[in-house]
Amino acid sequence: MELNLKEDYHIHSNFNDHSPDDLSISNIVHQAEKIGLQKFAITEHVRKTSDWIPEYLDQIKSLNRKNLIVGFEAKILPDGSINCPQEYMKNYFIIASFHGLFKDKQQWLKALEIAIQNPDVNVIGHLGPETTFNLTEDELVHLAKLIVSNNKIVEINAKYHLPLIEWVKIFKKNGVKFHLSSDAHSLSEIGNFEKISDLIEIINN
Ligand SMILES: [Zn+2]
Ligand SMILES: [Zn+2]
Description:
Strand content: 15-25%
Structural class: alpha/beta
Strand order of the largest sheet: 1-2-3-4-5-6-7
Number of domains: 1
Bound molecules: zinc ion
Radius of gyration: 16 Å
Number of strands: 7
Helix content: 25-40%
Distance between the termini: 9 Å
C-alpha cells in the first residue's frame, strides 16, 4: 500500500478547550484547500458529556465539502468502551485512542481488543505502548491479525510519532492498513507529515 501525503485523517478544531481560537472549522477548511489536501477529516475530541456536537456538525455540514470527513476522536475507556455518545458512533468517522488511563498491560490489551472489535470504530489513534510496558512480537502479530480481520485502520500519527517503528514493520508484514494523521492542534500542523518521514518511508517502500 502507498500512503497518500495529500490526505490528513486527524485534525482538531477550537471546539476543544486547548486549541487556538483561529482553529475554526472554516479556517481548517481554507488551510486544507490552500495546501491542496485531497481528503481530510476533522475529528474533535469528544466525550459522552460533550454538549457542542450539534453546533460542530452544523458548521462542518454548512461548508458542504465533498472531500471533508466529519468525525470524532474518542477515548478508549478501561472496559474497552468508547467515550462517545452512542448516537454519533454509527454515522461518523471514529478514531479510538488511548489517552493515558492505563498502567496494567493486560487491561490495556483487553480494552484495545474490545475497541478493535467495535463495529463503529474506524481507526485506532496514535497506537503505542504506555511508559510502563511494551509489547512482544507475538502480541503485536496477534493485534495485527485482529486489526486486519476487523477491517480497522492504524493511523500514522505525526504529533506523537506513533506507532513505534518496530510496530509499524510488524503491522505492515501482517497486512495492516495505514493512513496519515497530523493530529493538528494548530493551522500550520494540518497536512504536515515531515516529522514522520521515516515511518512513511517504511510503509511506502
Ligand atoms: Zn489523541
Ligand atoms: Zn488527536
